[in-house]
Design a protein that fits this description.
Chain lengths: ~375, ~80
């Protein structure tokens, strides 16, 4: 398929790998901050084929994993309200909240539906005028504009039985927070391709400017990832720090102004709690005043109190790249994809799930 | 979660496009892109086109790969 098969050509991949081997001497710890990269890197065995001085670390790039229990508990509370249809993306179904999961609630009779698109949730609302359709929306800048577009459509068409539990987050300032206590000595960033397709690259300038760390926006096919790593190690070897784009076919410097316009006509920047990292100012998205009637938590007056997370789960450290999953005492023993203890094992993009699926640290 | 795949626009009507995604034709919403035309490739994420693929840039990247391979052959 055009724009895919060329970037999966193993001959090209081998050429680039040979180049990396030639160029790279210095130790380079490179962090990917996108769960889709994590999955692609594991699937194509990229960690294994790189020279020993280059290590790849997964960061907080799985939106499911960084969602704190508070929002999951809110969705759980709401789905128990009679007459509510809770719609969400498939990834959220098995994530454990303080006491339950959407999957368990559905089994117990709640009307929870998996949708592919926010527009499917809008259609559900139109088809069920006597019910309240609540979309549980998580995601980064790639997904959030699709939630904003749904709110705008509800507004345009006067759909009043639609609302959202918003738990969306934005990436750049989270990278700053990670770097502010850079416990692990990151030497380069593999920046997310599709978040950047929306936001462009301007907002990442501080990584190179303030922290002197190279960063490259990279695509998701194996050839993309290897070429991006080559661009990163070249900078590392030359002692340079720039923000570059490898994924030029999908990421213009300015991103997608139309999507940004839609996003920020509905939402404004607020604070957000990241699991394992804590509160990061300016990384949340909250509905603007004129759209607060679409806020499901306010609409249904939901209050959650407990927000219990499993004390043994090291997801927080895994998300910051400080620990690898096998360093968690529960990994592959108590915590398994069929019985996940923490969200890093639930989501296919979670680092624990990726480690497990590809047999890392499993005896 | 941030997965998006390239698909070619086959037709456009009422703010939606029919796209060809590896032989499967499906509808995607165009609210988030401006100026998408028939035959453009768009990146599709969760039922929305989120960016128009820049074919010129894609060709440039592919040229770069080709050069790399030829360089190897000539050595
Ligand atoms: S293995 Fe399970 S319990 Fe341990 S950090 Fe990962 S998700 Fe949490």
């Amino acid at each position: 398929m055009k724009f895919l098969s060329e970037y999966r050509d193993s001959r090209i991949a081998r050429e680039i790998l040979a180049e990396i081997n030639e160029v790279s001497v210095k130790p380079a710890k490179l962090m990917e901050v996108c769960g889709t990269h994590t999955v692609s890197i594991f699937r194509h065995g990229i960690r294994e084929i790189l020279p020993a001085n280059i290590s790849l670390i997964s960061g907080p790039g799985c939106p499911v994993c960084v969602t704190p229990n508070k929002h999951i508990d809110e969705a759980l509370e709401i789905c128990r309200i009679p007459n509510v249809i809770l719609a969400t993306f498939g990834d959220m179904m098995k994530v454990p909240g303080s006491k339950s999961s959407l999957y368990a609630e559905k089994a117990a009779g709640a009307d929870v539906r998996v949708v592919y698109s926010t527009m499917d949730a809008i259609e559900l609302a139109k088809e069920n005028p006597g019910k309240e359709v609540v979309f549980f929306g998580i995601g980064f800048e790639t997904t959030s504009p699709t939630i904003a577009a749904a709110v705008l459509r509800a507004e345009r068409e006067g759909i009043e039985n639609f609302s959202v539990v918003g738990a969306q987050k934005t990436i750049p300032e989270a990278i700053r927070a990670l770097l502010a206590d850079n416990e692990i000595g990151i030497n380069g960033f593999i920046l997310p391709g599709h978040v950047s397709a929306i936001i462009g690259v301007e907002t990442y300038k501080f990584i190179a400017g303030d922290f002197r760390i190279p960063a490259v926006v990279i695509g998701f096919e194996p050839v993309d990832i290897l070429q991006g790593i080559l661009m990163l190690v070249r900078q590392v070897e030359e002692g340079q720090a720039r923000v570059e784009i490898q994924y030029t076919r999908g990421v213009p410097v300015e991103g997608n102004p139309q999507a940004i316009k839609v996003l920020y006509s509905v939402f404004e920047q607020g604070d957000a709690i990241w699991r394992g990292i804590g509160k990061i100012p300016g990384t949340g998205l909250v509905l603007k005043k004129q759209y607060q009637k679409y806020d499901a938590v306010k609409k249904f007056g939901v209050q959650t109190t407990e927000n219990k997370e499993h004390p043994g789960c090291k997801c927080g450290d895994v998300l910051r790249g400080v620990k690898t999953p096998p360093e968690c005492g529960l990994y592959a023993k108590v915590c398994l994809p069929e019985h996940p203890v923490g969200p890093c094992m639930v989501s296919v993009e979670g680092t624990c799930a990726a480690f497990y699926r590809y047999g890392k640290g499993v005896s | 979660m941030c997965l998006a795949v390239p698909a070619r626009i086959v037709s456009i009507a009422d703010g939606n496009a029919m796209v060809d995604m590896a032989g499967v034709v499906r509808s995607v919403n165009l609210d988030l892109v401006s100026g998408a035309k028939v035959d453009d490739y768009v990146l599709v994420h969760a039922g929305f086109a989120i960016q128009i693929v820049d074919e010129e840039e894609a060709l440039k990247t592919l040229e770069l790969f080709k050069e790399l391979m030829e360089h190897e052959v000539s050595q």
